[in-house]
Each structure stands twice: as structure tokens, then as C-alpha cells.
Specification:
The chain is mainly α. It has five helices and two strands. A hairpin with a 2-residue loop joins strand 1 and strand 2.
Length: 116
């Protein structure tokens, strides 16, 4: 069994990482970020998926805390919630720093063996 990668500190934001891993949701998140706000209808017009599929993807992004929603008349307008993105970015940065330290240690060991 392969051990799971874990950065030191708080647990990874698994739900946010899983939500962003899907290419359609990643593209949707980027579209919402680029435009400030989007509706499911306007997103569906920019993507090769149906409006109901967009609504399901937005639900996943919302549950993961990546987007928020506000009602404006009959429309629901979605916006990015940067706090959750920043949390995921901090976790990935900590993980990268741990791997950089591990790789530097391996390099030092390999170099010391070459010198022997």
C-alpha cells in the first residue's frame, strides 16, 4: 500500500482539490474568476456541456467552498470564494516545500556517495 502524501500542518482541503481536479469544473472556476460573476446559463453557453450539467458542477464547487451564490431576481449569480482557493494553494505550497527538502536531502546523499 502506498502512503498518502501529506503536507505538515492542517489536513489537505480534499473537497476543494477534488472539485478543482475535474477539467470542466476547473474551466468553470476560471470563467467565473475572469468575469467576476456568472450564471449557470452564461457558463453553459461557454462550455460544451448542458445547463443541467453546469448546475451540478456548480453545486460541487459550492459544497467545496470554491464558489458562492447570490440570487438576483430569477437568476443565481456565482462568484469565486478566494479564501478556499488560498487555503488549497497554501497546502500545495507546503507539500511542495516538503518535497523540495526531501529531494535536496537525497541529492546530498547521492553526492556524498559519489565523493566516497
Amino acid at each position: 500500500m502506498t502512503p498518502r502524501l501529506r503536507a505538515a500542518g492542517p489536513a489537505p482541503p480534499d473537497d476543494a482539490l477534488v472539485a478543482m481536479a475535474d477539467p470542466t469544473r476547473w474551466r468553470m472556476l476560471n470563467l467565473v474568476a475572469a468575469h467576476g460573476e456568472e450564471t449557470a446559463t452564461t457558463l453553459a453557453a461557454q462550455l460544451p456541456v448542458s445547463r443541467p450539467a453546469v448546475a451540478k458542477h456548480l453545486s460541487v464547487l459550492s459544497r467545496a467552498g470554491l464558489v458562492g451564490a447570490r440570487r438576483s431576481g430569477r437568476e443565481v449569480r456565482y462568484h469565486v470564494r478566494p479564501g478556499r482557493l488560498e487555503e488549497a494553494a497554501r497546502w500545495v505550497s507546503r507539500l511542495a516545500a516538503e518535497w523540495d527538502a526531501r529531494l535536496a536531502a537525497i541529492k546530498r546523499i547521492a553526492e556524498s556517495l559519489e565523493d566516497s
